[in-house]
UniProtKB/TrEMBL annotation:
This is Nucleoside-diphosphate-sugar epimerase. The lineage of its organism: Bacteria, Pseudomonadati, Pseudomonadota, Betaproteobacteria, Burkholderiales. The keyword tRNA-binding does not apply. CDD domains: Arna_like_SDR_e. It comes from the Bacteria. Coiled coil: none annotated. Signal peptide: none annotated. GO terms for molecular function: carboxy-lyase activity.
Length: 350
């Protein structure tokens, strides 16, 4: 019976993972976050109360609680991070302070107490790599100039990967996983109207619900490989189970190379889907697709990646895993999940 520590348990990955653990295993979840809006149903479920242990706190403040629970638990997932491009550009120091500095003591505690550290790297570490598919063992990690603060997230995550690898050379049991554009309900708030404040699928969805124009940055030709959250959680569960130590000392891309679409194609797919839902159709009819520049949308410090396709050979072979959810089905699940929230999101036009 594993004890799993999830820091950032109310986040996108954290709340989906904790729910899956409680539904399908006898493991205990010890979770910390600053809010509970995504995990309310889990916390209130009588069937889970003996195995769901939640503490409302902040990893930068409640350091003693964190260290105690790293020592107490078997598997450590520090999922607290800033992962929105507008913040990379506007507040780069905040990104470094949280994503690297605040997580470093947790990594050190995992090494100190001999725990299995499952750490969220990112597809962004590959930067502007020119490979047709990004290989966790061989691809070069290519970032832009210093005057483009967009790269501080990529650099902070890459440095953490290297530090964790270094601890691994001294005995730390670790697994690094790199999510490639995981999408699903609860990714960001659809109630946030400000452009650039959330990730692309949520951003477009919010605009459709509110009948606002969708802005394509630099024409929307840049492509991403999108991955349904449930496929991602399948892989994470295999990593946490770590049968025969297969995941120890490994780096895994977790993505779906089949779902590789341009941002322009994504906007078209979402608008087409919206017309099939009575709740969304009226808003969708008002939406126009317009073009803007990355400078106008994000700020002068932005640079984009044109293609980002994961090589998942080792992930599939070693974890006995494969992504199975098509792009159409992944988007449909999101549209289904928010059908009851349309009125609140529309009200944000005011």
């Amino acid at each position: 019976m594993k004890k799993v520590l999830i820091l950032g348990v109310n986040g996108f990955i954290g709340h989906h993972l904790s729910k899956r653990i409680l539904e399908t295993t006898d493991w205990h979840v010890y979770g910390m976050d600053m809010s509970t809006d995504r995990i309310t149903d889990v916390l209130e479920n009588e069937a889970y109360k003996s195995r769901m242990h939640f503490f409302e706190g902040d990893i930068t403040i409640n350091k003693e609680w964190v260290e105690y629970h790293v020592k107490k638990c078997d598997v450590i997932l520090p999922l607290v991070a800033i992962a929105t491009p507008s913040t990379y550009v506007k507040q780069p120091l905040r990104v470094f302070e949280l994503d690297f500095e605040a997580n470093l003591p947790i990594v050190r505690s995992a090494a100190k107490y001999g725990k299995h550290l499952v750490f969220p790297s990112t597809s962004e570490v590959y930067g502007m790599c020119h490979d047709a598919e990004f290989d966790p063992e061989n691809s070069e990690l290519v970032c832009g100039p210093i005057n483009k603060p967009r790269w501080i997230y990529s650099n902070a995550k890459q440095l953490m990967d290297r530090v964790i690898w270094g601890y691994g050379m001294e005995g730390l049991n670790f697994t690094l996983f790199r999510p490639f554009n995981w999408i699903g309900a609860g990714l960001d708030s659809i109630h946030t109207p400000k452009e650039g404040s959330s990730r692309v699928v949520t951003q477009f969805f919010g605009h459709i619900v509110r009948g606002e124009n969708i802005s394509l940055v630099d024409g929307g030709a840049q492509k991403r490989a999108f991955t349904d959250i449930d496929d991602g959680i399948d892989a994470l569960m295999a990593i946490i189970a770590n049968k025969d130590g297969a995941a120890s000392g490994k780096i895994y891309n977790i993505g779906n190379p089949v779902n590789n679409y341009s941002i322009r194609e994504l906007a078209g797919m979402m608008l087409e889907l919206a017309h099939h839902y009575p709740e969304y159709a009226a808003g969708a009819k008002q939406v126009k697709i317009v073009e803007t520049t990355s400078g106008a949308y994000y700020g002068a410090g932005y640079q984009d990646v044109q293609n980002r396709v994961p090589k998942i050979t080792n992930t599939c072979e070693e974890l006995n895993w494969a992504p199975t959810t098509s792009m159409a089905d992944a988007l449909k699940k999101i549209f289904d999940a928010y059908r009851g929230q349309v009125a609140q999101a529309q009200a944000l036009m005011d």
